[in-house]
Specification:
Elements lengths: L1 E7 L4 E8 L4 E5 L2 E5 L4 E3 L1 H12 L3 E6 L8 E2 L1 H8 L2 E5 L2 H11 L15 E3 L4 E4 L2 E7 L8 E5 L2 E3 L21 H12 L6 E3 L15 E3 H7 L9 H12 L8 H8 L24
Parallel strand pairs: 3-6, 6-8, 8-9, 13-14
Antiparallel strand pairs: 1-2, 2-3, 4-5, 4-7, 10-11, 11-12, 12-13, 14-15
Helix pairs in contact: 1-2, 4-6
The protein binds fe (ii) ion.
Length: about 280
Amino acid sequence: MRIESFFDPDTSTYSHLLSDPASQRCAIIDPVLDYDPAAARIGHASADRLIDHVRANGLQVDWLLETHVHADHLSAARYLRERLGGRIGIGAEIPRVQVAFADLFDAEEAFAQDGSQFDRLFADEECFHVGCLPVRVLHTPGHTPACVSYLVGDAAFIGDTLFMPDSGTARCDFPGGDARQLYRSIQRLFALPASTRLFLCHDYKAPGREHHCCQTTVGEQRAHNIHVGRGTAEADFVAMRTRRDSGLDLPRLMLPAVQVNMRAGNLPPPAANGRRYFKLPLDCF
Ligand SMILES: [Fe+2]
């Protein structure tokens, strides 16, 4: 198999392209839709870069995979599906996220809260294929209640379950997030062979490190992760994570991002005047 990673410097997001050379079929994991919040303008440069790469390499897209409903960038899954084909997949717990955010954003009546905007909802331990490559889904909640990791051969795409060892772990204070669950999800990943390659969704480059990086291993994480490595006890992790989360600002693009990502990459429906709007709930965070 082949894995190529694409970095979006605006949101520090990594999108990954997993391809099967034998069949020329591929999956795109966590693609980014650009967004300028000052102008409320959507952009497609990041997504078009993926499209160009897929076409230049003669690949067919089987899947557009989300590890979770992201709060830091908008998803390009829908835009890519319209241009490249493929099916959009996400974890089966997605309705829990949709219910929470439908309430917060007072979503339109037609907004289904059963995950039906996505083409496939993956249950824990479910298997599917990218070309001839078997992929196993692990439910790894905690950062959000619907987070999943995708395991293929010696590689795992783990979303925001872990950051680089020098950066630790993702926050657990979004609706349905749970530090105890995240700790247990991480233990599931730690039970994989030490040489398993872990591909991350973000890297914010820890102080002192020169380059952004999106790849580490289970062994490196077990030994060196500053939040959960070296045998950190569950209670200590939960106390640290809860304390840390209480002081974090909201992600810059969270409010627009969630309104797109809970709709599988669809924009909110147009208002009576034909324009589309994002909503900003006041004094909720
Ligand atoms: Fe996230």
